Automatic annotation (TrEMBL):
This is Isoamyl acetate-hydrolyzing esterase. It comes from Mycoemilia scoparia. It holds the Pfam family Lipase_GDSL. GO terms for molecular function: hydrolase activity, acting on ester bonds. It comes from the Eukaryota. Gene3D superfamilies: SGNH hydrolase (3.40.50.1110). Residues 112-131 are annotated as: Disordered. Residues 115-129 have a biased composition (Low complexity). InterPro entries: GDSL, Iah1-like, SGNH_hydro_sf.
Amino acid sequence: MPHIFFGANDAAFETHPQHVPVSRYIQNIQQMVNLITNPESQYYIPEVKILLISPPPVGDKLWIKHCCIDKNPNDHKNNHPSVNDNNIQIYNRSNGHVLKYVEALEEFSQLYNPSNNNNNNSSSSSSSSDGEKRVCFVNVWKSIMTEHKKLPEDLRNNQWDGFDQFTVDGLHLSQHGYQVVVDEILKVIGQNWPELVPENLPLHAPYWKDIVDSTKFNDEDHSCEKLLVI
């Protein structure tokens, strides 16, 4: 199951070299999806299921701090650099700006909803012959913001507005942040493709309990083979 997880860097401001306009961002995503859903593509995978994962939110204040320290190493002595004109010039992302990419990706994903196929003139079909959804949207931005609202007030209103609970620097996710992502991915899979939930997947190798915990040695070539329990 391909996971397409782009946008955090694309959503940098126009003045930043990593910036990709929203329209181009969606075009790039569409090319990736079409590559494996278009029957005319050499990479076409019948019945493939794809997750489109939104970029996560940005902790504005924490990212400003990171950018300032990265630009001015001596600022590490100041735990909360001031937001002055010089620092604003260094600052290259905002949570409000990344939301535009999240909303555009969600809107794009609706084109791959079976209920919209009759109105979709795209060269790639997103649903299987039985109308099953082929592309699903995972709103990581919304999931983390929802968890953010659940934080205790003292954490939510700390000097980093609580985003230090989900990111290490305002942009890159922490262990807790990634756990929210994983939980949301599994929820979307369970809602749309329950047969692909981990516990429902078949084993492609013998289960360890089905392998005898003993070894039969061949004295001639010193090889060994595992005995399977019948």
